[in-house]
C-alpha cells in the first residue's frame, strides 16, 4: 500500500458517488442505503479513505448476528459451551473501489473489523461473512476464515483466532 489510508465511520462528508467496485449492488448500497441503515441502527458502515486523494477506497458493514453451534466444524464446536446459538458479528458487505483493488485495502478493512469486534462491549465468538461468489470466499479463506459445514460461501473467523493472527 503506497497511500495513506484512514478507516472511519461513514459520515455525510464522504464522497460516495464516484465509488465503483464492479458489483452494482455493492456500489448502490454505499451510495443509497448505507447511511439509512446506520441511522436505523441495523448496521454500521466504515469507510477506507485515501487521505491524499480524498477518495473512498473501500467500505464494510458490521451488524450483530449469531451462529448455530451445529453449523460449526466439530473441532471448533467441541471446545465451546454447548449453547445452541453463539453470538457473532456479521461483515454484511465489504467492497473495494476498482482503483484500489489489489492494493491490500480489503485486508486492511478485515483487520479494522476485527479490531472493532474485539473492542465491542457485547462478547462475540466470531466474525461471519456471506461471500458473494467463490472468488470472494477464497479471499476470506486467505484471511483465516473457515466455511460453515453446510454453506461453503458462508465463513467464520473465531475472534480468538483473529487475535492470534492479527495481534
Automatic annotation (TrEMBL):
The organism's place on the tree of life at top rank: Bacteria
Keyword field: Acyltransferase, Repressor, Toxin-antitoxin system, Transferase
Any one GO molecular-function label of the UniProt entry: acyltransferase activity, transferring groups other than amino-acyl groups
Stretches assigned to the N-acetyltransferase domain: 25-164
KW Transferase (keyword) present: yes
Acyltransferase keyword on record: yes
Catalytic activity as recorded in UniProt: glycyl-tRNA(Gly) + acetyl-CoA = N-acetylglycyl-tRNA(Gly) + CoA + H(+)
Record InterPro entries: Acyl_CoA_acyltransferase, GNAT_dom
Signal peptide extent: none
Protein name as annotated: GCN5-related N-acetyltransferase
UniProt lineage: Bacteria, Pseudomonadati, Pseudomonadota, Alphaproteobacteria, Hyphomicrobiales
Amino acid at each position: 500500500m503506497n497511500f495513506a489510508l484512514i478507516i472511519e465511520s461513514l459520515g455525510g462528508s464522504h464522497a460516495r458517488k464516484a465509488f465503483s467496485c464492479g458489483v452494482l449492488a455493492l456500489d448502490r448500497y454505499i451510495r443509497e442505503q448505507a447511511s439509512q441503515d446506520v441511522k436505523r441502527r441495523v448496521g454500521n458502515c466504515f469507510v477506507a479513505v485515501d487521505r491524499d486523494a480524498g477518495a473512498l477506497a473501500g467500505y464494510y458493514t458490521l451488524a450483530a448476528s449469531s451462529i448455530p453451534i451445529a453449523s460449526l466444524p466439530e473441532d471448533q464446536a467441541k471446545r465451546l459451551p454447548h449453547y445452541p446459538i453463539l453470538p457473532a458479528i456479521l461483515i454484511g458487505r465489504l467492497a473495494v473501489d476498482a482503483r484500489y483493488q489489489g492494493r491490500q485495502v480489503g485486508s486492511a478493512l478485515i483487520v479494522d473489523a476485527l479490531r472493532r469486534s474485539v473492542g465491542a462491549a457485547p462478547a462475540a465468538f466470531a466474525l461471519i461473512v456471506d461471500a458473494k461468489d467463490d472468488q470472494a470466499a477464497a479471499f476470506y479463506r486467505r484471511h483465516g476464515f473457515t466455511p460453515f459445514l453446510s454453506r461453503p460461501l458462508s465463513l467464520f473467523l473465531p475472534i480468538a483466532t483473529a487475535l492470534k493472527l492479527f495481534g
